[in-house]
Design goal:
This protein is mainly β and about 70 residues long. It is built from one helix and five strands; from the N terminus they run E-E-E-E-H-E. The chain is globular, with a radius of gyration of 13 Å.
Length: about 70
């Protein structure tokens, strides 16, 4: 299972109709809400489908580590 966080920028295998393949993760969980960086369209996608379509993670979001974790 790939670790994806809120705010990560990912590249998917199939392009959006606008031509962009880059998406920003807006919500995580069993389902993800992603936003196209080309046109701003938002879509819901299941974790399984997102992991299958994922080509690469372009940029990781700055996520602070939880306190007490070493």
């Amino acid at each position: 299972m790939v670790e994806l966080n809120l705010g990560d920028i990912v590249r998917l295998r199939k392009p959006h109709p606008c031509g962009s393949t880059d998406w920003k993760i807006m919500r995580t969980g069993m389902d993800f809400r992603i936003e196209c960086l080309g046109c701003g369209h938002q879509a819901w996608i299941t974790r399984v489908k997102l992991e299958r379509q994922l080509k690469t993670i372009l940029k990781r979001a700055d996520v602070p580590e939880p306190e007490g974790k070493t």
